[in-house]
UniProtKB/TrEMBL annotation:
Keywords: Antiviral defense, DNA-binding, Endonuclease, Hydrolase, Magnesium, Manganese, Metal-binding, Nuclease. This is CRISPR-associated endonuclease Cas1. It holds the Pfam family Cas_Cas1. The keyword Metal-binding applies. The keyword Protease does not apply. It comes from Methanocorpusculum vombati.
Length: 311
């Protein structure tokens, strides 16, 4: 893997993106950023910008994929260098035991979220859970092994996930306006940061998924238990789901507890994060999103696809 900047993100509207054989240049208003292509592993573009065709050619020639997202962080496409597009495991993916794979994703993600909630609550005198919430989560965890249909699995997964995000709001500063995970357009900085962090994690995971020979669109929890809809990249989402808490949520909630001032974001039709806040957030994400751990998770998933066992 290349050392240096793990990814470069262009977010919002109006940037001009160009590249020569050795340098990527991004102009945003009066500011300008330049990166040696040898230091970049991935370019993420979210929102509306101008991207030169020559830039795409130089990026792919340097083995750098380009991922595209809408302004809310939803993935819409990817340009991959030669060799990234082959999916030799596609046939095997179509024959995986979907229920078993979906169950594995749900169990892993629920354990990860429960560990984090218990960690957050351990230092609070007033506790973190409202009456009955911990019992509901524990019962849901025990109930999983008895669920035999995909809709039942999806119901428990969505219930516990929604509860998790609502419980997180109790440790964020109230003035940030975060109450629960919402759909875009986001009206608070915490949801906006979640969206950006998940976009970065998605793009990072997608590179490993495609490199491992997996078809990013064939999943088990996403795409099967949870219908496709907007859930493009179902395989990518399945693999990243248990990693969202340690790699993104911790960073977001740490910053939300430390304090995000009103001058660091602006709310109009949606929440806009300041350049200074985004710079610090991206710095922390770069430390938190472990590419080696992602590669291991993808490799384990690919091995499970081949063997037919649970990932």
């Amino acid at each position: 893997m290349k050392s240096g900047v793990p990814w470069v993100t262009v977010w919002g509207y109006g940037a001009d993106i160009r590249a020569t054989r050795g340098t990527l240049t991004i102009r945003e208003g009066t500011s300008r950023r330049s990166y040696p292509l040898s230091s970049i592993r991935h370019l993420l573009i979210a929102g509306g910008h101008t991207l030169e065709t020559a830039a795409v050619a130089h990026l792919t020639a340097n083995n750098i994929p380009v991922s595209f997202f809408d302004v809310h962080g939803e993935p819409v496409g990817m340009v991959c260098p030669p060799g990234y597009t082959a999916c030799p495991l596609r046939s095997a993916q179509k024959n995986i035991p979907v229920h078993r794979f979906a169950m594995s994703v749900i169990v892993s993600s629920l354990k990860s979220r429960m560990r984090y909630l218990n960690e957050l609550g351990s230092g609070r005198e007033d506790g973190l859970y409202y009456k009955g919430e911990l019992e509901i989560l524990a019962d849901a965890s025990r109930e999983l092994e008895f669920l035999i249909t995909l809709p039942e699995l999806a119901r428990v997964f969505l219930l516990t996930r929604n509860m998790y995000y609502e419980i997180l709001s109790r440790v964020a500063a109230p003035e940030l306006g975060y109450r629960r995970r919402k759909k875009p357009p986001y009206q608070d900085p915490v949801n906006a940061m979640f969206a950006h962090g998940y976009a970065v994690l998605y793009a990072s995971t997608a590179v490993s998924v495609t490199g491992a020979g997996l078809d990013p669109e064939i999943g088990s929890l996403y795409g099967s238990a949870i219908p496709p809809g907007m859930n493009r990249g179902a395989c990518v989402r399945d693999i990243m789901e248990p990693l969202m808490t340690p790699m993104v949520d911790r960073v977001v909630m740490d910053m939300a507890q430390e304090g995000i001032t009103a001058g660091q974001y602006e709310i109009s039709s949606r929440c806009l994060l300041s350049e200074k806040l985004m710079k610090e957030y991206n710095r922390r994400l770069a430390e938190s999103i472990d590419s080696d751990a992602l590669d291991r998770a993808v490799a384990e998933y690919a091995d499970a696809v081949v063997s037919g066992s649970s990932p």
